[in-house]
Amino acid sequence: MKIALKKLFQQIGLLCDEDIEINGIEFDSRKINEGNLFVAISGHISDGHTFIQAAVDNGAVAIIGEKELKKEVSVPYYQVENSRSLLSKLANAFFQEPQYKHKMIGITGTNGKTTSAYMLHHILTSNGKTASLIGTVGYIINGEQHESSLTTPDAITLQKMIFESKDEYVVMEVSSHGLDQYRVACQMFDYALFTNLTHEHLDYHLDLETYYQSKKKLFNCLKTEGKAIVGTYTHWGERLYRELYNEKIPVFSYGQKKRRENIYLKSYTSTPTATLIVQDHGEEYQIHMKIPGKHNLLNALGSYICARDIGFSPGEVIYALEKFEGAPGRFEQILTPIGSKVIIDYAHTPDGLSHALETATYCINNDLYHIFGFRGNRDRSKRKEMVEISQKYCNHVYLTLDDLNGIEEELMVKELFELSKPYANVTVIKDRSEAIYQAIGLLQNGDGLIITGKGPEKYNEQYTYPTLTDKETVLRFLQESIIYDEKYHNQEQQR
Ligand SMILES: CC(=O)N[C@H]1[C@@H](OP(=O)(O)OP(=O)(O)OC[C@H]2O[C@@H](n3ccc(=O)[nH]c3=O)[C@H](O)[C@@H]2O)O[C@H](CO)[C@@H](O)[C@@H]1O[C@H](C)C(=O)N[C@@H](C)C(=O)N[C@H](CCC(=O)O)C(=O)O
Ligand SMILES: Nc1ncnc2c1ncn2[C@@H]1O[C@H](COP(=O)(O)OP(=O)(O)OP(=O)(O)O)[C@@H](O)[C@H]1O
């Protein structure tokens, strides 16, 4: 794809007096190809402006930055207010505003983005629509799966994906980092959904107010006719709903309180199975979910409201929701041959953990074991609270390693021991695979083990057993014990 810089700039309200044609936009000097436009960004780790000469050497034909140039360069340099924000606009214009080819649904919130995105994707595809999915677990574009490195991809990758998607719908998770860094453009979404906001990412956003303001940016990215759907079951959601309502943005709320909408939650039961009773334009519907947990009822309610506003009938939405099996690594349950249960979940915030553990207590008859750890270099302030929650719900807690993210192992292990000190039921087993082996080995009929924090993600650390994910470790243990049991059984028979 090629475009005259003048034309591209014109589309986003910038002036350009050079006759230059560009064939792509890049913000990383190492990825520049001959004929690209380079956008220099002042980053969190390094400053893109220091790589301008490298970008020119690699073939950049024009540069955009937000700082004064220290040294002359041989290609035109355009100084702007904010390079990141401009990059987003440029990428959107370069890929011809691809959001208008699709119905776009953006989902933000501390917890429940992935689950809600999978639910909506499932409702759409179960009803004969094609839909792309962009989020933490992976990207599905035109029916093809791709690995994801970020929940919300960078501005260029994102616009390119939407441009290449031939799907009618695009359902995407929009992280607070993505919003803060302008990875999504203005006027992107037909629906913007907010699940909830609780303690998370304070290493990045520093305080909850700033975190909230980042999330709120999603609602500046609605198309002219776009609508907001806001979970009002956290007080931040209540506040967002009020603010959007006052700003005259069409907004639906969902939660346990009835408001002025035509669709609302009448009642629910989350034990032993999850059922919602929804009032929809005067009619009452029951939705029996396969996946447990009050949090998933709330995720289902948000998805229901969105799908109904898109135009699906109650029957179409309920049929799909009742068949929904869950998102990968979110409360995934594995039954063992002795009648115990292992659950794998992605909870990594105090609130997510409370929901996951409370749900686990409904699904387990006897003792509940819990294995989890903390990612290095991420919000340390939530750790104490998470241990407190865990030991409250569980009979036995094992603290173990998660991704170290460059933190020294010794430091993390020391912190785990500190965190475990006040509690008699909290033990440290640093090797994650070993912790899983030991805990499953202790399970009796009716007991359960919940392993949280990584969901389906691959281990970044090397552990004793050569497995790559929590699920693989669990299955390896079970496989080995079946082989062991068969051998033992055969030997007994021979005797
Ligand atoms: C802290 C953070 O979010 N950083 C993101 C940000 O990086 P940055 O712009 O600050 O980059 P930087 O490394 O300081 O470099 C500055 C500039 O110099 C350029 N550069 C650098 C080196 C060089 O040789 N040449 C060059 O041009 C870089 O390309 C960049 O443009 O922008 C990059 C491009 O979009 C992201 O890849 C990067 O994500 C990092 C890898 C990351 O781990 N981010 C996580 C925290 C994140 O975003 N997570 C959320 C989900 C969170 C959740 O809910 O769990 C997500 O959406 O995935
Ligand atoms: N609505 C909800 N409220 C509270 N906790 C939830 C909710 N939905 C899911 N959870 C919990 O949070 C965990 C993460 O859920 P999910 O992956 O759907 O959220 P997410 O917002 O996509 O998180 P991430 O951005 O980190 O991927 C789940 O495994 C579950 O334990």
UniProtKB/TrEMBL annotation:
- Where primarily located? cytoplasm
Q: Which InterPro entries match?
A: Folylpolyglutamate_synth_CS, Mur-like_cat_sf, Mur_ligase_C, Mur_ligase_C_dom_sf, Mur_ligase_cen, Mur_ligase_N, MurE/MurF_N, UDP-N-AcMur-Glu-dNH2Pim_ligase
Q: Which cofactors are named for this entry?
A: Mg(2+)
Tell me the protein's name. Answer: UDP-N-acetylmuramyl-tripeptide synthetase
Known pathway: Cell wall biogenesis; peptidoglycan biosynthesis
Q: Which HAMAP family match?
A: MurE
A Pfam family matched by this chain, by name?
Answer: Mur_ligase_C
